[in-house]
Specification:
The complex is a heterotrimer of chains A (560), B (141) and C (433). By secondary structure, chain A is an alpha/beta fold. Chain A contains 16 helices and 30 strands. In chain C, a hairpin with a 4-residue loop joins strand 19 and strand 20. By secondary structure, chain C is α/β, with parallel strands linked by helices. Chain C is 23% helix and 26% strand. Classes of the chains: A alpha/beta (560), B alpha/beta (141), C alpha/beta (433).
Chain lengths: 560, 141, 433
Amino acid sequence: MAKKIGVYVCECGANIADNVDIDKVLAEVSSLSNVEVVEKHKLLCSEAGKAFLKESIQEHGLTNVVVAACSPKQHELTFMNVCEQAGLNPYLLQLANIREQCAWVTPDKEEATEKALRATKAAISRVRYHAPLEKKEVECNPDVLVIGGGIAGIKAAQLLAGPHRKVYLVEKTASLGGKVNEFEKLFPNMDSAAAAISQEIQKLLQAENVEVLTESEVTEILGFLGNFEVKVHKKAEDQEMGLDVGAIVLAIGFALLDPGSLSQYGYGKFDDVYTSLEFERMNASGEILLKNGKQPGSVAIIHCVGREEKGYCSRVCCLHSLKFARYLKSRISGVKVSQFYSDLCIPGKSHQKFYEETKELGVDFIRVQNTEVAENGKGMVIKYETEAGLKGSLEADMVVLSSAIEPSSDTSKFAEMLNIPLSESGFFSEEHEKLAPISTPAEGIFIVGCAQGPQSVADSVVQSEAAAGKILSTLVPGKKLELEAKTSEISDAFCTGCQTCISVCPYGAITFDEAKRISVVNEVLCHGCGNCVAACPSGAASLKHFTFTQLYQELEEALR
Amino acid sequence: MEEEFKPRIVGFLCNWCSYAGADLAGAAKLEVPSSLSVIKVMCSGRVDPVLVTTALLHGADGVLVAGCHPGDCHYRKGNYYARRRFTILKKTLETLGLDSERVALAWVSASEGPRFSGVTNEFAKKIKQLGPNPARKEISL
Amino acid sequence: MSVGSEINNKGQKPPVLVIGAGISGIEASLLLANAGRKVYLVEKSSYTGGNVIKWEEVYPNMDCATCMVAPKQQDMLANENIELLTLSEVESIQGTPGDYTVKVRKRARYVSMVECIGCSACFDPCPVEVDNDFESGMTKRKAIYIPCAGALPNVPAIDTENCLRFTKGESCELCKEACMFEAIEYDQQDEELELKVGAVVVATGFDTFDLTKVPQYGYRKFENVYSALELERLRATNGPTTGELVLRNGQPPKSAAIIHCVGRVEKGYCSSVCCMYSLKHAHYLQDKVPGVKIYQIYSDLCIPGKSYQRFYEKVKEHGVDFIRGNVLEVSEQGKGLTIKYKTEDGKENTIAVDMLILAPAIEPRADSSEVAKIFNIAQGDGGFFDERELEPAPAGAPREGIFIAGCAQGPKDIQESVAEAEAMVGKILSLSK
């Protein structure tokens, strides 16, 4: 069918009209082939302008539209909507930016006119090669898999559970609750951790449509957003189960740095040196006792154990160290508590108060640059050096090491399975550090709690609720996923199977079809950046709406 | 009588940063060389070295590719690939006998209107000094 | 108390009210709109983006702040489900979760959002010049204004507290005469809107500690003492110096000191973000003024999390003198500044610098108590709004239906604010299944 292109130039009041000889532009383009109609208008984005445009498109039976006006960033959507209303596919439109990038930046009117003409001609040449793109939709599974039955996983599952959505919670161990099970209290309000966690577990088990699989591990995950295929191994029955879900929440928690590798702290060497988790467990059992069965008379809590080795601050240790001091003061009357720290990290509206009240209980805070746990015949002694270089020592019956929080040992397994990059610190990498903290570049997969980075229970809960928010918003039961129209596509015929495109795709949107030996773009995941197109050595990859031909047309006009 | 050399410069600008920066230069009414023709792409990573080479072979006196600053790419890492391709392209152009000084890669953020104006004006000045592109052959692809 | 109380569902899920169009409010709005919910996004000022758009870069990767936020703002403005109400404030709220009636006062902009194309022709002719709050008073603006280049929506507003028509009843029409699109409408009226919503997200952001309350730091006393926000505006490419870090005399500083924790003692909490943004400021200086000598005076370095320490090490490597101490007094020596401080061992010392940057505490908005009263929210620690149970512990009866996100809840960074905004949406969508 012969093309009928309509060219509309906007005066934008005086903004364009004053700087560009619009009549000259119109006169010159009207003679170009396929140009059916040329018009100018005072303000195309106004209600009157839009109505005029719509009528004109319909009247002339146009197949393509060029609007030379302000930046497409201002009104491309506006004019696309007009086309749609006029019965024309909105992608058969091309804008020429003759305001921001022409009239407003070219003082000489003749030069501005010439530039506007070039831009308009380029748009006309290009639009001839536009294809009517359709916004595709794809079915999606609204069900969710939550991996990890700690507080973060439990909260996410709670919020997601509902009548039209099945939530699977897979937990490696035999029970739910994770690390919080081992705490007596939570900072800063010193609420009962046991009460909190059991309440949350109750809420979860009462929620509808939730299937909890304890003593189970995920062994395989294939697929993509809306369409994941998961295999779970149920250890107790030694059975494999298949699940289909639309999204996955990774809430696999953390591990604690083993201070045994840091010999200066005497862990494993002296009897009464404990890690933070060991101390928590001991306290939760009801009594804080030395290995000899007696209560300690003096306890040293050492912060930042392993910080230098890990290269990051684990965020919660100063706070839980304060909590430990409180445990001690409440259980053992007269106990001497000393905390050895480098920088006190207590951000937030309530934590300084927590610190001050703890200090008031009679806890000593000693700022150090390094500590060593040694023995002096009588018992343990903390040898320390202050920042000023002064050396000191303090006897202690018991030492608690607040050691660094590390990624869970399952992190690399899931990173590989799901193609999620890991940050330098070893935790999962989020999609965008500021604006997408719990999403990953693998769409539909979320990272929450300590799997994402060392953080408190409160922060973990916020993140798991955030994951629920993202999933509840995107995967709506019965609603299809709307896809980006301007995606990449790879020609079967020209693809040589080199897989270069796969290696450069930021979204893992290209997979290799082993049977056909060619790469295939997943339109659900493709964001339309075109990196694969530039990388493809055989020209097999092409980006809709930004094909080589289309760009070449613009190029030709620029160089005519 | 010497005819004044009017350079023809093509600029490939990425939708999210550099194109927005160019718009901002417009909003601030800064000067941008009229010799520049802008072709918008979604990401500087889309800019195929073949496209740039084609531009030069078809008579472009200068080709400018502009994208987001490293780390700011809307598509996470498209601009890193653009940077790599560009480095190799520069070397390839020399092998082909084309002047690699005629192509440039610049990072312009969405808020850098003045920078866009500066970068384009400087590039246009350089191209003017280099003179017309001697490689002006028609090649059918 | 049943946490599963359904948000009322009368066939179609009710709209949600989001208060504050900063990064938290925008994120919450987009996520709710994406879920098919109608959102009323009420913003007190004439523009969106809150505090984040005042900054040039954000830590730790030095992402361009405006580039980062602009696509979100644009998505929000284009989203059919989001009705943005700028120059608006909530006056009252009645009802129950799922069924609230909110009264909003929408002040007149006096410029048509439909006709105005953002050409800025109306600014020049305006005879009134006042301090531009957005630039912390470092530049002037007119009575008809946008706060900065690139502000969205790109439509000016008339400041009725300074426009001669409103302050003196004068019949000045200079802006209207300059407008080619008949966009200026002096006869616009304030509106009283009544909105029916099912839930509310309060994302009203923060203010910074008033540095004049601590005169020993010399703020507004000595020329080259800057607040963190002022430094951000200097560094901003759309700011008063187009991004150049210079002193009031236009010259770059040869030395600068950054003081952390200003107002911490007075407020009684650590504002969470100042150490990191102070490092960012050091980075700004290292970047724009090569060779500048930088001192940072701090008490405890607060750089938690998997990536922040790396940033600190990088900044330190490029040359910053970190001094752990307490500033006693700032005085002027000729054109320079002398800072007297005490280190933890009790010794007093001084340093001399050209430029001083103060990192003020983050505090609740000045109108927090009014907002708290309207919504019946308690003001907890630090005066910030008391959130619903964040700890998984049995909390007191929460005000179901009203959620707090971002710095309105407590000082935090962008990452945490965004997560919290998403979390509140998670709660709302979960309750309305």
